[in-house]
Write a structure and sequence with these properties.
Shape: globular
Number of strands: 16
Number of helices: 28
Helix content: 40-55%
Largest sheet: 7 strands, mixed
Strand content: 5-15%
Length: 655
DNA sequence: ACTTGGGCGCTTAATGGCGG
DNA sequence: CCGCCATTAAGCGCCCAAGT
């Protein structure tokens, strides 16, 4: 490899710092200059983050809203409203307002301007102040000065705070300290969204933006704590003094050295970022293995020479196979799936509760357990195949064969009635809701698709025999919520009673229950049918989530996007409109449309709408296809029910 | 009378799957 | 980014027996 990168004008920001905590490789690659030059050599990198490459290649390129990730759309939205929140909150104090977010002076000039305000002014609110220390540039979301006392707030479009949020704001605090500010006497707060917020419809005639403003002081909350994971009740947890003070991150054992010897650490980062090629790597490092979730992960593996075929990183679908554990396995030399053969794949606790013969059975090595009749019968009878998913997963990969519990699947398929309604909701969630009575990040349904099988014993998804497709998509962004439900209620009864089915029913059930709870003051009987759907909905995901059918192709996943193509590889995304092809694009289109409120309703929207209609039928059609294939598959077998109900007789000679 | 430690069951934390 | 769900790991109080 004789390829050298010359790095000029590197950008050192708080993200450089935060990324470096995850690992030097990751930090190096997330530098724009480094990335761009590396991408010229490694084609994979271009494909992995197409928009990033496109943006960096052509700096003058105007990225349209359609190309912005939804997190950016929400981030900008929350940023805008947080300013109104602070202006509103300190209205009575008559503070001076400085907003540098739209200034085009260049960073150095902003630093000077910020410095002047910080020195001379008293009683002000400053948005997007600029500071620099030792080459590291930061922009502070909000700085408030009240009678000489400073307060720094970091605004996040989230409803809880984790360790990396604490690191984020405390890095800024450290830079301010190095600039000579006495941060020990500053108030440091994380400003987050209040998930109890509701866009109450107090006055009928208020426009949406007026309504948000009306509820504004309840939209945000400030606090100074972070948690290892999200508490069920954040408010209660804070009141009880749970969690950790963000200030204390300086004394956290993992970060103590960094913040105590800050200058030295910054130098280490600078040296790393200036390296002329990708840092060589043969093991995973960092304080955690979170960076394994990065979009660049497939590239990491390839660069480290890790083979795709039997890598332990293929194992997923189980919190036990978390990135940290897999990374640690790799570091101690367990790199391939066959090397985990001897590891205890079931927890001690689970093993203790098993019958002795099963325990012995699982100890056997070099034994094709997935084909063993006794094991299959044991799982068919005991409904606990999910407990053995690691074993199923590992052996399926090693033998490259499917694992099937016919009896379980047959039982599941027999529950379905003659007429089957396969339904799917398309929803959009926004950090700050634009639909009346909605709360932060609440999923708003704007589109549904229903495939109806008129006779479960006589249909075909390819010819369309006995298959009906119904769909609905909001026509404009005004008050579509009620229309959605009245149309859905009507369509779900159109061909009489039947089974109601969705994939991962929990999601659809939540959407329905949100609506039912919201309108309970209205006549109950009007919603009795929705309640019936809520209670009776079957889950097409069940055979896969419970490992009754497992293919090595699944790699631990049972998402419809993995299971669908396994059964019907001939249905593909190829025919779909380019505008809704990529991942979550459909939801993004709707989100833009909702956020823009009334301004976006034009011809462009109508084109997008047509594309969205085309896409929506895909998932429900897949459900019909999966149902049909599963039925055909099971029909091949002759069932020996005598065997299935007989005593499990373990052949001791095999143990 | 007091301390210590193992075993037990219950609760809570941590992780990652699913949908969007 | 959200909520919800499942599994596993860790923490806690409790009992009881053995030791000091």
């Amino acid at each position: 490899m004789n390829f050298n990168f010359k790095n000029e004008n590197q950008s050192l920001t708080k993200y450089t710092f935060l990324n470096y905590l995850k690992g030097d490789f990751f930090a190096w690659l997330t530098d724009d200059n480094n990335y761009l030059k590396a991408a010229q050599q490694y084609e994979d990198l271009k494909k992995l983050s197409y928009y990033r490459y496109k943006r960096l290649k052509n700096k003058n390129l105007n990225i349209s809203e359609f190309e912005l990730p939804t997190t950016i759309i929400d981030g900008n939205d929350v940023s805008d409203w947080s300013k109104k929140y602070y202006i509103n909150k300190y209205q009575k104090d008559n503070f001076k307002i400085y907003d540098f977010s739209l200034e085009e002076l260049g960073f150095d000039n902003l630093v000077k301007k910020t410095f002047e305000i910080m020195q001379k002014e008293k009683n002000f609110i400053l948005f997007e102040g600029a500071f620099v220390y030792n080459g590291f540039k930061i922009r502070t979301d909000v700085i408030i000065n009240k009678n000489g006392k400073f307060k720094l707030c970091e605004v996040k479009a989230i409803t809880n705070c984790l360790e990396y949020h604490a690191l984020d704001i405390m890095f800024q605090a450290k830079i301010l300290q190095k600039n000579g500010y006495d941060i020990d006497n500053w108030i440091l707060k994380l400003t987050i969204l209040n998930n109890n917020f509701k866009l109450f419809q107090n006055k009928e005639d208020l426009q949406i933006n007026e309504l948000i403003e009306f509820n504004l002081l309840n939209l945000f909350q400030e606090h100074d704590r972070y948690f290892n994971s999200k508490p069920k009740d954040l408010k209660k947890a804070i009141e009880e003094g749970k969690g950790f003070l963000i200030r204390e991150i300086f004394n956290h054992q993992d970060y103590f050295e960094i913040f105590n010897d800050f200058d030295n650490f910054l130098e280490k980062i600078k040296i790393n970022q200036k390296k002329d090629k990708l840092p060589k790597k043969d093991h995973f490092e960092g304080r955690n293995f979170n960076y394994l979730d990065s979009e660049y992960f497939p590239f990491f593996l390839k660069y480290m020479g890790i083979s795709d075929e039997k890598s332990i990183f293929l194992l997923g679908g189980d919190s036990w196979f978390n990135n940290k554990r897999k990374g640690n396995f790799f570091n101690i030399g367990i790199k391939n799936i066959d090397q985990i053969e001897n590891l205890q794949l079931i927890s001690n606790l689970s093993t203790q509760k098993l019958e002795e013969n099963i325990k012995n059975f699982l100890k056997v090595k070099d034994f094709n357990i997935l084909k063993n009749k006794n094991f299959i019968n044991f799982l068919n009878k005991n409904n606990n195949s999910k407990k053995f998913k690691r074993i199923i997963q590992k052996n399926a990969i090693l033998s490259n064969e499917n694992f099937i519990l016919n009896y379980k699947i047959l039982n599941h398929l027999q529950i379905y009635k003659k007429v089957i309604y396969m339904y799917d909701f398309e929803t959009v969630s926004q950090a700050i809701p634009r639909v009346k009575n909605m709360s932060t990040y609440e999923q708003v349904p704007y589109q549904y698709s229903i495939h109806i099988i008129l006779d479960k014993d006589d249909f075909d998804f390819k010819s369309g025999k006995n298959i009906i497709h119904l769909e609905w998509l909001a026509k404009d962004n005004k008050d579509f919520y009620e229309d959605f439900w009245s149309n859905f209620t009507k369509d779900m009864q159109k061909y009489g009673p039947g089974s109601y089915v969705s994939y991962n029913k929990q999601f659809e059930k939540t959407i329905i229950s949100n609506y039912i709870n919201r309108v309970e003051y209205k006549k109950k009987d009007k919603f009795s049918f929705l309640l019936k759907i809520y209670e009776e909905t079957l889950d097409m995901m069940e055979p896969f989530a419970n490992y009754w059918y497992y293919s090595p192709d699944f790699l631990g996943s049972y998402s419809i996007k993995v299971v669908g193509p396994h059964f019907v590889p001939d249905i593909s995304y190829k025919d779909l409109d380019i505008r809704v092809q990529k991942g979550d694009q459909s939801a993004k289109q709707a989100k833009i449309w909702l956020i823009q409120n009334n301004s976006y309703y034009d011809d462009n929207w109508l084109n997008v709408r047509n594309a969205m209609l085309k896409y929506c039928c895909y998932d429900t059609l897949l459900m019909v296809a999966i149902f049909q294939r599963l039925k055909e598959f099971i029909a091949q077998y002759n069932y020996d029910f005598e065997l299935l109900i007989s005593e499990i007789n373990f052949a001791t000679k095999n143990i």
